[in-house]
Amino acid sequence: MVQPHLLLTALMLCSSPACSPGSPVPWSPGHQLKEILRLLVQLQMTPSHKCLDDNRPEFRLTIQKTEATCVNQLMLQHIFNLFKTQEARAAWDTQVLKELLSRLAESLEPLVKSREEPVFCTQPRLALLKYFRSRFCYLQKEQYSSCAWEIVREDVRKSLSHISDFHTEVSN
């Protein structure tokens, strides 16, 4: 039996003019998100276990499956903003970082063009804003150390992975 929340999400995805017959296929997050996740893993330079300590903050992003669609653009935009900083360029492998930023920009382009946002996206938008603001503050507090970057990179990867999983469920 199909889950009601998955049906609702699928209905919302195809309630836009982009889903009407004859229109181009709407942006499909599957491949793009997997590529961005691969690059986030490839960025890892410091083993995560070396950065574990009891003083690090617990970052939590709580997004419901039905909200995954409306947070895509904002999530990708915040990741782009986080990794395009001077501090990020100093911390990460330049080649992988360039590729990550390029993929993020490619993924954002169709989302920006179809800028239709349902009214129910207000809460997830606020949660994302708070989520990324806490990461920027943490990096500043830790003076952009390699461990701070690694903790933020891994946390962002996990959050994006959850959204990717939601999209996979909806598309199946």
From TrEMBL:
Its main location: secreted. Pfam families: Interferon. It is found in: Secreted. InterPro entries: 4_helix_cytokine-like_core, Interferon_alpha/beta/delta. It comes from the Eukaryota. The lineage of its organism: Eukaryota, Metazoa, Chordata, Craniata, Vertebrata. SMART domains: IFabd. One of its GO terms (biological process) is defense response to virus. GO terms for molecular function: cytokine activity; cytokine receptor binding. Keywords: Antiviral defense, Cytokine, Disulfide bond, Secreted, Signal. Belongs to the alpha/beta interferon family. This is Interferon alpha-2-like. GO terms for cellular component: extracellular space. Residues 1-22 form the signal peptide.
